[in-house]
Amino acid sequence: MIYFDSAATTFQKPVAVPNAVLRAMQTCASVGRGGHAAAMAAAETVYNCRLMASDLFDAEPEQVVFTMNATHALNAAIFSVLSPGARVVVSGFEHNAVTRPLHALHADVRTAGEKLFDEEDTLRAFARAIAEQPDAVVCTHVSNVFGYILPVEKIAAMCRERKIPFILDASQSAGTLPISLRQTGASFIAMPGHKGLYGPQGTGILLCADAGRPLMYGGTGSNSEDQAMPAFLPDRMEAGTHNVCGIAGLIEGMRFVRKQTAEAIFRHERELLAYAKRELSEQKNVRLFTGEGQAGVLSFRVEGEDCEEVAQALAQEGIAVRAGLHCAPLAHGSAGTADTGTVRLSFSAFNTPHEVRRFALLCKKLFPA
Question: What residue ranges of the chain have pLDDT lower than 50?
Answer without folding.
Answer: none
